[in-house]
């Protein structure tokens, strides 16, 4: 049986996995917090000082946390997949599909932020709160796929 240290990452494998999980935590934290900001932001009057403060706060969270964390999670995760050569395993394909949905969710976060910054409040609070449930549900499903590997 091949040792888990024999793939292309060699002895770096557990370190890359540790880094993967660290950036997963940063990424998901960002996916939880930015839409929470939007709920508070929506309550402000467009053009007010409070509105401008939220726009800056959201912009910083998106560029300093969300974008780099997402890129690093993808990069490190794909390195792990190459190392373990797990392409085609059903749990992994399902995980990738759910991670793509999380990535799409981040796209929505960016576009909703641009609308808020332009003064549009497209969704009412209830719909925005429902959107906020999505990353939690997707994260739970991904963790089950990775840990339980039901198929
Ligand atoms: C962005 C694309 C991603 C790719 C390509 C990817 C790929 C991988 C791979 C190949 C492993 C190694 C599995 C092993 O060592 O047995 C792994 C571990 C893990 N990933 Fe990801 N991953 C990604 C995103 C995520 C996300 C978003 C989460 C959580 C929401 C996550 C949670 C985990 C967990 C918990 C482990 C540890 C599993 C274990 O120790 O057995 N990953 N990932």
What is shown here, in short?
With 151 residues, the chain is an all-alpha fold.
3D architecture notes:
Helix content is 78%, strand content 0%. The chain has four helices and no strands. It has one domain. The two termini are 22 Å apart. The mean pLDDT is 96. By secondary structure, it is mostly helical. The longest helix is centred in the middle third of the chain and has 36 residues. The structure holds protoporphyrin IX containing FE. The site of protoporphyrin IX containing FE has 19 residues, from α1, α2, α3 and α4. Protoporphyrin IX containing FE binds next to α1, α2, α3 and α4.
Q: Mean pLDDT across all residues, rounded?
A: 96
Span of the ends, CA to CA: 22 Å
Bound small-molecule species: protoporphyrin IX containing FE
Helix content: over 70%
> Which structural category fits the helices and strands?
mainly alpha
Runs in which pLDDT lies below 50 for 5 or more consecutive residues are: none
Task: Map the helices and strands.
Blueprint: H1 13-42, H2 49-84, H3 90-117, H4 125-148
Helix pairs in contact: 1-2, 1-3, 1-4, 2-3, 3-4
The protein binds protoporphyrin IX containing FE.
Protoporphyrin IX containing FE (HEM) binds at residues 17, 20-21, 24, 28, 73-74, 77-78, 80-81, 84, 86, 99, 102, 139, 142-143, 146.
């Amino acid at each position: 049986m091949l040792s888990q240290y024999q793939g292309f990452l060699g002895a770096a494998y557990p370190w890359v996995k540790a880094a993967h999980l660290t950036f997963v935590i940063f990424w998901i934290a960002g996916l939880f917090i930015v839409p929470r900001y939007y709920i508070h932001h929506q309550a402000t009057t467009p053009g007010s000082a409070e509105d401008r403060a939220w726009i800056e706060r959201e912009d910083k969270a998106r560029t300093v946390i969300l974008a780099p964390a997402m890129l690093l999670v993808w990069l490190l995760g794909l390195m792990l997949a190459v190392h373990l050569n797990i392409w085609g395993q059903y749990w992994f394909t399902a995980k990738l599909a759910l991670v793509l949905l999380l990535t799409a969710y981040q796209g929505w976060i960016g576009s909703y932020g641009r609308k808020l910054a332009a003064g549009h409040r497209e969704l009412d609070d209830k719909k925005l709160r429902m959107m906020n449930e999505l990353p939690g549900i997707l994260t739970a499903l991904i963790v089950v796929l990775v840990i339980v590997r039901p198929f």
